Amino acid sequence: MERLFELANPQQIPPEWSNTPIGRLVEYQNMQRPFETYDTAQLLVGMCMDHRKHLRIPDQFAYIIRSGGADLRHSEFKVSFAIAIGGVRHIALIGHNGCGMVNLVGKRDAFINNLVEHAGWDREFAEQHFTQFAPMFELGNEIDFLICEAARLRKRYPKIKVVPLYYRVETNRIWGVRENF
Ligand SMILES: [Zn+2]
Predict the structure, then answer these.
(1) How far is the CA of 139 from the centre of ligand 1 (A)?
(2) pTM, entire model
(3) Judging by DSSP bridges, how do beta strands 90-96 and 43-47 pair with one another?
């Protein structure tokens, strides 16, 4: 899968990212860069709610919106806020491998049964809930979705730099994504 490229040392960071918050994010996460001090946010990070992910970044460096699959379609006001009030000019959209929002259909029975058993939901309501929302949150393929979502955000916020990145949960390292594959 050559759609991803490694970001293990500063030479592998694309030149257009260096000295930007995107480059800094990669250096903090992958290269143990010592933390600078920030008094304003530099970046908005959109990342999945998944429990296996943790960013190594300094205080006050980034706004973070976490949602299933790093899907920001339903978080637009928050994105706008980070830009308009928070002052960020860069968005890092971080997908990851093994995302639970892929193949939701395969999780249908567990989803419904466990809402009934663990949350006390009525079965019929749980079924309707799944049927109504699963298609909205289904990603298909993590990388395809990430690239589409980055393109959508660029159209929506044309002056903001949007970069898709890919987090490997086994190593906690971020990889680059080739968009024109
Ligand atoms: Zn996920």
Answers:
(1) 9
(2) 0.94
(3) parallel
Mean local confidence (pLDDT), 121-143: 95
Those residues whose C-beta lies under 8 Å from the C-beta of residue 35, and which sit 6 or more positions away, are 28, 57, 58, 59
Domain boundaries, the chain: 4-99+142-177, 103-138
Compute the distance from residue 101 Cα to the ligand 1 centre, in Å: 6
Q: How far is the CA of 94 from the centre of ligand 1 (A)?
A: 10
Q: What is the CATH number of domain 4-99+142-177?
A: 3.40.1050.10
Distance 99 CA to ligand 1 centre (A): 4
Spacing, Cα 48 to ligand 1 middle (Å): 5
Question: What pLDDT does 2 receive?
Answer: 86
Q: Which residues pair with 163 in a beta bridge?
A: 92
What proportion of the chain, given as a percentage, has pLDDT over 90?
A: 97
